[in-house]
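[Meeting: bench + compute handoff]

Bench side (C.D.) handed over the final construct sequence. Compute side (W.E.) agreed to return the predicted structure before the next meeting so the bench team could plan truncations. Sequence as handed over:
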Amino acid sequence: MNGYNNQNQVLILKGTGVELDFQMGGSVSERLLAHGTLTLKTVVAPEINGSKSNSSGFAISETMIGGGITRYTQRNLFFSGNLGAGRYSFIDTSTSTPSEYVTKYGFSCLLKAGKEWWISKNLGLGFAITYGKTKLNNDSGSYTEKWNSNRYGFLLHLTFD
């Protein structure tokens, strides 16, 4: 995840994290679903400007809320697109008084493609690859922060019918 840009000052945050993607909806037609989406991502101790040496005690999280559609093929391959509003929070627990900085909401999207296998009448298990992006401008007093992320992921996929 890339951080803020303040008068040509750039903060770049990178790392491996955890993602939870929760979708709830229903069938529009036979193999087409519409759903609401809530996605949460967190990176603990991210690499900051190319260094992990001072990253202990920091975490960055990204949240998206929105909606989307998922299309299934006859072989239970699926393709999903989600649009919504996203924001970031930067947490500093390196001091005795932890602090959290939260941005305003901006544009966010999540694309997924994967495969499922039905292991019972109402339960599917599978995997997905993902790409997500959140981009926003956050006014902070006398300057504007520009936040932008490009995320790639691999998810284990659980479906209840």
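W.E. noted at the follow-up: Residues 123 and 160 are 5 Å apart (CA to CA). C.D. will use this when planning the next construct.
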